[in-house]
Amino acid sequence: MGDIRLAIVGLGKIARDQHIPAIAATEGIELTAIASRNAKLGAVAHFATIDDLLAGAPEVDAVALCTPPQVRRAQAASALRAGKHVLLEKPPGASVSELPVLIAAAEIGKRTLFATWHSRFAAGVEPARIFLAEREIRSVRIEWKEDVRVWHPGQTWIWEPGGLGVFDPGINALSILTRILPQPIFLTAAELRFPENCAAPIAADLDFSDEAGTLIRAEFDFLQTGPQTWDIHVDTDQGRLTLSSGGARLFHDGRILVDGEDAEYRGIYRRFVDLIRTGQSDVDLTPLAHVADAFMLGRRKTVEAFVEEAA
Amino acid sequence: MGDIRLAIVGLGKIARDQHIPAIAATEGIELTAIASRNAKLGAVAHFATIDDLLAGAPEVDAVALCTPPQVRRAQAASALRAGKHVLLEKPPGASVSELPVLIAAAEIGKRTLFATWHSRFAAGVEPARIFLAEREIRSVRIEWKEDVRVWHPGQTWIWEPGGLGVFDPGINALSILTRILPQPIFLTAAELRFPENCAAPIAADLDFSDEAGTLIRAEFDFLQTGPQTWDIHVDTDQGRLTLSSGGARLFHDGRILVDGEDAEYRGIYRRFVDLIRTGQSDVDLTPLAHVADAFMLGRRKTVEAFVEEAA
């Protein structure tokens, strides 16, 4: 079987920083086209829109949608209609309910739909899942605190409805949490802090629980300067497990078990190749459903305006 | 088989107005106990809490939870653990994610879990579903406008997080819509208007669509005085179908097809008896997922404070 010919739609920061190097490092897939209104990439075939791409590059087998979530559903629907496999950056959409429609379209067309959660490919996640499967879990505490000015420069879509604000990184924590815990969880309370000039929150505190009544607390903050914190602590009957550095490092009672390099997107593309070759899809809506619950059930607080170019 | 012995938990307006007369009118089920902190019902056995009820009335087969959605999950979990069948008023919970955990508990315990959507039992709904199954749908317009002071007197929980505000009635329209349309829909945009002193919206405009790009618009308003409006208009290739009066009346191009009496809750209890007797559950989360999407994707606007005892 020849290489899968892939097009990237949306040539922004995440595509350049992560997708392009990961595709180059992955066997069985090659980048053959780009759709982006403004940006180009060397000699790679370029189209202004996904519709131009689908019309002008019929040899493309698959598309990776790296556009903001608000426009992704229509692009995914077009690509599936044109017979392409589709990879969705996270979050997989702007609404939970749009995903079942895409899943059905992929099934009918016998194409792969892959809703990626890159943090699930961090080195410590699978070892953490295996460790926790056998343990009694007493409590969970998540701290996911980063500086939006460093990680999302100029990404105004993040503050628009559907852009999710601090849940854009926070959903990464939820994607790990829902993978490593042996039982399903649900939100019980939340506080969301909206800057007075933004349609999305800049900070959130979330309380989850499960059938056993476990206390699970998450703190998301988008204004963390200095050291950045992407940690999940799980207290069990056999000590404390800590996933740190966004899941790349795993500790048990302070002793390091895993210290992985950043290879999340290579994991994504290996899995995408596997899914296409075996005719499968992989769409887990759970993290997005938790975020929707937080917006529905959360108490809103208005906080001071966010200005990107602050002093 | 003897009658199903039912307890009502939460003896508020909906229990008195709807559940009690419907139970009395339904073969195969009888009201044998009440749990309510303050209210009693004649000679029916009374308990202050659901825990007291479960301990003190072991002969009860099933419970109907008519409490506010914020407390219902814990009550449903307790009742299922005690081996009771459970009927949930709408909305079925305060979060989407809490429902799969209850569904799993009901399955494991071989008990019936019934998430009711009373408006789906209105007389015009099933005829509308059958009519639309064969038609090309061009557009849908929903107007769901009622006076909160008339229909929800003193119900302060409705303005708290999880109380849903205008979505408490609006979700009835969505429960009908998702039953009568032949294709799944998803939210594309929304505006939610929050009174400055409330944690839930008092009005909302919602845009939905489907795979075919159909325009579906809903307007929810909680400040409608004078005539009340609970209408769904569907324009098709064979004229306009209108469900009016909350689904009780059905018109085709202005000609009345169905003019039903209000028998929604009798339909609910007939179905609950059937589900218990046949060992099934019935939990459709779709309407609640659309509401969660609206809170996540919707643009928020602050409007003037809501004071129940307005001049």
Automatic annotation (TrEMBL), chains A, B:
It comes from Flaviflagellibacter deserti. InterPro entries: Gfo/Idh/MocA-like_OxRdtase_N, Gfo/Idh/MocA_oxidrdct_glycsds, NAD(P)-bd_dom_sf. This is Gfo/Idh/MocA family protein. It comes from the Bacteria. Residues 4-112 form the Gfo/Idh/MocA-like oxidoreductase N-terminal domain.
